[in-house]
Amino acid sequence: MNFEKFYADLIKELRKNPILHTKKEERRNEVKIENDEIHVMTCRRKPNYETIPKNDIKKVFDELIKGKMLSQEDLKKELNIYRTAFILTAFDLLPYVKYDRELNTITINKAKLFI
Q1: pTM
Q2: Neighbouring residues of 103: CB distance < 8 A, sequence distance ≥ 6
Q3: What is the largest CA-CA distance in the chain?
Q4: Angstrom distance (rounded) from CA 84 to CA 42
Q5: How many C-beta atoms surround the C-beta of residue 48 within 10 A?
């Protein structure tokens, strides 16, 4: 799977789920999609939406494709990504990404990528 297909799948799922509650702390995130960009408003940033850079989504995707398990800390410290709780939650909407609540991590199931 290439990144553009992955991103299109993510946008599609976020359009279906405009309100997400983060996995670990269950904080409300409101999502809007404009011009194929993801914008999120968190309870802390209300009423302002922040753009989730497509490049940040690609960084996470690339690491998952390499077979890595990524935690919220990995996203922050290794990849320098912001809105990490939202990203974990959003990626988990996809059938080929698995969230582990105990470890607060995501992984990709490569076998399901092509189904």
Answers
A1: 0.91
A2: 69, 71
A3: 40
A4: 12
A5: 9
